[in-house]
Amino acid sequence: MVPVIFVVNCTLFLACVALCCFTFASHASHIFNPPAQIVVIRFALIFVLTAVSFFLQYLSTELTSPSSTEAIAHDMVEEVVTGIVEPIMLYSFFFLLVVHVGGTDRALHLFAHAHRATYRTTRATTLLTPMGSPDERDAKANTDDEDPAVRAARLGCRDYARYRAVLSAFSIVRPIVSIAMVLNRWYNVLALRIVLASINITSTLAVVVALMLTMQRLFPAIHASFLILPKFFVVKGLLLVRSFQWATYCLLVHDFDDDEILRVYYSGCLVESLVFCIVFLIAFRPATFRPIDGPFAAKMGFATVWDVMMDPVPACQTSSPPSKAISTSPVLVAV
Length: 335
Description:
By secondary structure, the chain is an all-alpha fold. The protein has a single domain, classed as Rhopdopsin 7-helix transmembrane proteins (Up-down Bundle). The protein has a two-stranded antiparallel sheet with strand order 1-2. Helix 3 packs antiparallel against helix 6. The longest helix is centred in the middle third of the chain and has 40 residues. The C terminus is likely disordered.
């Protein structure tokens, strides 16, 4: 007799694939914002790969022992792929934000504007509250010699570069730590497992904070129809499930290689994947994106995943509302 948990996992897996395929088709059949929609199509494939990964992990608990050579080799290959895919997904979300506000120049302007607003508030507070010592007043006078606009632009560029640097650091740390965690299963050194899990958790939290601060800077130019918070929930939620949750599981569960525990864990991951796929279908539907014009529309292709790391992102202008005629554009060749 077929186990009930196997039937449930098969149903969850097929539901995830069906939802992602629907999202894929809805964007691929009607292209009006190539940079954003190509990224969404890639996201759909990543969600499918995630569901496939969790389903295969569940099957491995039914067919082999987690400590077997075959299981560890499978986990290592998957961790390498995951370590590459997750940074691409993070850069893609950062790229979506920059494209939505109009390119890197516009994003830097918004970063600078946030610092100008902070400077005005701080300046007003300083005028109302006298400085305590002559040295403090002299230091403040030297700082005020810099033009406020120049200062805001400098700090805005600095923050923008720092947030991108956090993404770059995560793209290096994540695959190395993941492979080390898999290799440690041979030796099962508790202290090393705790250190690696802590690094994984810390790096994940750092990149989430960097993206949240980026959203805060760009928020004044993000339209409500873009559904920025649901999009963030989906992308970051999937990241937390793939890395943060697994690292926490390895940290807290002593018998993390036990077949029964892993079977339940991966079944729960498939449930979470289905929830994220449902939200993904809603938050990334074509109606949440605006059509754009300009040469930037023809610069991206489906297979060139590294294009989301471009810096600067070219300026992109909003055009008229999309029409079905746009779907015959030559841009479809790139998709």
